[in-house]
UniProtKB/TrEMBL annotation, chain A:
Protein name: Lipid-transfer protein
Signal peptide: none
Database matches in InterPro entries: Thiolase, Thiolase-like
Organism name: Streptomyces cirratus
Lineage: Bacteria, Bacillati, Actinomycetota, Actinomycetes, Kitasatosporales
TrEMBL record, chain B:
Domain called Thiolase C-terminal: residue spans: 248-379
Any matching Pfam family: Thiolase_C_1
Gene: atoB
Lineage of the organism: Bacteria, Bacillati, Actinomycetota, Actinomycetes, Kitasatosporales
Record protein name field: Acetyl-CoA acetyltransferase
PANTHER family tied to this protein: ACETYL-COA C-ACETYLTRANSFERASE, NON-SPECIFIC LIPID-TRANSFER PROTEIN-LIKE 2
Superkingdom in the source lineage: Bacteria
Amino acid sequence: MARTPRYAREVAVVAFAQSDHRRRTDELSEVEMVMPVLHQVLARTGLKAGEIGFTCSGSSDYLAGRAFSFTMTLDGVGAWPPISESHVEMDGAWALYEAWVKIQTGEADTALVYAYGKSSPGPVRDVLTRQLDPYYLAPLWPDSVALAALQAQALIDAGETDEPALAAIGARSRASARTGNPHAQLTGAVPQGDYQVRPLRTGDCPPIGDGAAAVVLAAGDTARRLCERPAWITGIDHRIEAHALGLRDLTDSPSTRIAAEHAGLFEAPVDTAELHAPFSSQEVVLRKALGLDEGVAVNRSGGALAANPVMAAGLIRIGEAAARIHRRESDRAVAHATSGPCLQQNLVAVLEGDRA
Amino acid sequence: MSKAATSKECVAVVGVGQTKHVAARHDVSIAGLVREAAVRALADAELTWADVDAVVIGKAPDFFEGVMMPELYLADALGAVGKPMLRVHTAGSVGGSTALVAANLVAARVHRTVLTLAFEKQSESNAMWGLSLPVPFQQPLLAGAGGFFAPHVRAYMRRTGAPDTVGSLVAYKDRRNALKNPYAHLHEHDITLEKVQASPMLWDPIRYSETCPSSDGACAMVLTDRAGAARSPRPPAWVHGGAMRSEPTLFAGKDFVSPQAGKDCAADVYRQAGITDPRREIDAVEMYVPFSWYEPMWLENLGFAEEGEGWKLTEAGVTELDGDLPVNPSGGVLSTNPIGASGMIRFAEAALQVRGRAGEHQIADARRALGHAYGGGAQFFAMWLVGAEPPTS
């Protein structure tokens, strides 16, 4: 392999599974939604829960509407005898990061990572306002679409995009989902529709829905044994920015760029990108920060504009990029996850397959 | 490639900071509270924000303050802008888990110096009802954590035949220890054993004085590698072992009195640290005792006493500040409980003991100390063992 080792151990995504993402799943509890996905991802490796070295999940109590919601989904793992396990109150992409660190210490050779979110039980636009500064911003209830619209307008004002270009991003994403992603919630053209919050129209916004995803990580020869073509994580890093929108240039994403540098993204070209851009305008920002040109296949899965299970959508980007490497549709891919209003926090992972 | 198992970097605690824990910090915002602990930890390490490579923060359920994923808003206050920031949540064990996640970043050589912090500002809401789950998740009978844990305490008493005064002995000890800890929440200068035993019954057999308070507080630590420890102006505490274990909340055969996950977690930590006789080889223990009876229960679960014998250590005074196995010299969770931070305070107090920096509640010549945290339905465990000397292996 031509890669320069950046870390102590080689770690790869060896399996990925996700649920069908749907507008609502009233008939399923969270554990019932997660469990089939866990079974699928483990079946792809032939591993049993008890053979996994470390387990880590990502979810939010605020979506579930109850404290300690992750304690219930742990039932879906089958944590008996007791397992080495942790949880982040973040998108599952950061759970994957914690698991990757654990493998880097040498304390585990394999890890099960999962994430889930049910947005359907509550008004998710309102729920997400609760993650804003509780003293100065949250009392105003500016919702996630309104904040994204500020960002979109800033991009238009800066001459970086316009409304037809944004509409084209949504249309391209859903067209990709139709051919490339049977799990997507929106798999085909949707009307661009009315303004949700000017300048963002319905087609610029992600669908609201429920879903879950899981990934298995493995180190070195274990990865080679479990997967015909492992998706090696040759770089992974994440960075956060200031919370207050007034302190940030919303047309740029310096945290994404720093993370990409630390992950080694710019050392060689990528053929594939899976970007966690819930709003069409955010893809514009991310393409710029990551330096992606027209030759890169962006969001062939449809991205978050085709399915956006909150707390899982970032992990799904890593899973989708890895799956393309597994299927030999990509040799070097970048996957991105975001959290917080207007791309406040960003994670970048570079994945590579062995070239025969 | 897979040389990693032998090449793990040593991890040292070079800075510890806490707020003075109180019922309500109306004078500061959440950001002000966490920053106070972080600034004190950096001052202890004689480092600045620029020396910190990453921030790992933990807290218990977001409902306790009513802020979803508050780390997003706290990025500025914790100097994390432009840096990696992780948010851990593993229920009551979270303060311990957060420290372990931070330690792993150093052990894996991903970062050199990491700031880790845990907090709770319980005065922002009502934690008891925050923990009382709505129908249909739970039958509407349990109020708060005490309602959940009291039956397990009764099971312990029935199983071991422990006299019903043991719980009050623990509370009396921990509340007196807290008088020697300037950061402890409860400073009950007029406490007597009779007062503990006469306090109102909350969840039989747990009395008011045998349960933890609701606190506002934060705790922070600076973790670094060997090179960082060599530059430390004060003695570091070295991490000799750390582990997490989880099991489901409820299942047929679950032993709520002495959960298997707790036993497995302790065994893993002792194996890493080369401990074969914890009672003799460990000089001080900071264990998570939110209700007095959990001291004898955890003494057994952690291997300090044979099954059924833990209460005898408590009754004989072994766990007193001047006993041969001091437990919770800081006053413990019974005297201070900012929930999300409580586990990290255990880990940090263990570090203070082996650094010789525990002040009035210092155990003389403490060389090895155990920090312990648990959470959920006695199902999530996090522990570390710290020593005054660097690990030899």
